[in-house]
Amino acid sequence: MPLFELGTGMFNMKEDSRRSSPRIGGARAGAGRKPLPEEEAIVPVTVNMRPAQREKLQRLGGAPWVRKKIDASKE
Fold first, then answer.
1. Fewer Cβ in 10 A, N or C end of the chain?
2. Is residue 11 within 8 Å of 5, Cβ to Cβ?
3. Cα(63)–Cα(36) distance, rounded to whole angstroms?
4. What is the C-alpha to C-alpha distance for residues 11 and 4, in angstroms, rounded to an integer?
């Protein structure tokens, strides 16, 4: 008789793999990060540029720098 015979005795893999306690984790009502107010939400924007321009943009501060410049500019 094999030592780990599946389906019988104390080494039943199907029975051993089941949880005997309540599940921990997973989705719950009200869990997770709350959405930002609409005026503070950030939407993705795609801009095409040359590699040198991208490098300069990163040195200048990336997306936060662009948002600051847009907010400071006159219409």
1. C
2. yes
3. 18
4. 6
